[in-house]
Amino acid sequence: MSDKLNFRNVSFTFGTQPILQDFNLQVRAGEFVSVIGPSGVGKSTLFRLASGLLEPTDGTIELDGHSGDKRLGRVGYMPQRDMLMPWRTIAANAALPLEIQGVSKKVALQRVREQLPTFGLEGYADAYPEQLSGGMRQRVSLLRATLTGNDLLLLDEPFSALDGLTRMEMQEWLLEQWQRLGHTVVLITHDIDEAILLADRVVILPQKPIRDVIEVPVPIARPRRAECRHEPAFGKVREEIWNLLRGLREGTVLEKGSLGAAGEATEGAGTSEKANGTNGADSTKATVATGGGHHD
């Protein structure tokens, strides 16, 4: 399977503060990847780089195997807040990327109306954002992101402001949309269960500057529903990720010097990681992808 998004030895500095340093990450076409990391580590910066809102200080970012600075407008980006314009109707909000692309307003609105039932928004074309619940507003935001015409979607904590029940409903709904559309999705979240339920693998960003990432595969069959949380395999992955995050907080995972010259990670905090290995679907063992080279 080909790479949809590829960070190759990417470094990025904001002012004098390094955020990424020789960072490598590959996301395969059609894959769903969840990203977890401490607050302030640079997760949103990663998305801004991928979408072309920022450019790397060094290294290359590839979309569909092509590098360069023309990523802007080629990625569907859904920020934490729905960012709906209160003076626009739901249909007009969703049609915005089509209008930016030069599609006539009439045609853009028609295309949006055709999609509304699929996104659970039938009958709301002429409503305004204030009339919708938080979950429905997020559906509009995702519809708008898909109408960019791009099959790579970056979702930045899209459900963080929702109540628990609505959040679970939206997680299942997102899975259905991903399976229907076949898009590549990268999701930022602070919710371990959400990360596992949705993703093929979970990428943990340990510390700033981001160089090495820990990858945890999710060996749970699809299609998935909320009930998957009760499966033993789900609990095993949850425990592994929790131990890794706790180890990061306590400074016992990926401390300076914990990666040897050969790239192998030392054991700590009750967990072990292997460097530069492949993570097959039959294993839940975390791997450390180092910034020194290409990791497949």
What percentage of amino acids are in beta strands?
Answer: 15-25%
Q: Rg from C-alpha positions?
A: 20 Å
SSE series: EEEHEEEHHHHEHEHEEHEE
Q: Write down the overall mean pLDDT.
A: 83
Q: Which blocks of ≥5 consecutive residues have pLDDT under 50? A: 254-282, 291-296
The best one-word shape is globular
Number of DSSP-assigned strands: 12
Q: Which structural category fits the helices and strands? A: alpha/beta
Give helix % range: 25-40%
Q: Tell me about the largest β-sheet.
A: 8 strands, mixed
Tally the helices: what do you get?
A: 8
Report a brief summary of the structure.
The chain is α/β, with parallel strands linked by helices. It has helices spanning 43-51, 90-94, 96-100, 105-115, 134-146, 164-181, 192-198, 232-250; strands at 3-14, 17-28, 32-36, 58-63, 66-67, 76-78, 152-156, 184-188, 201-204, 213-217, 274-275, 287-289. The protein has an eight-stranded mixed β-sheet, sandwiched between helices. It has a four-stranded antiparallel β-sheet with strand order 2-1-4-5, covered by helices on one side.
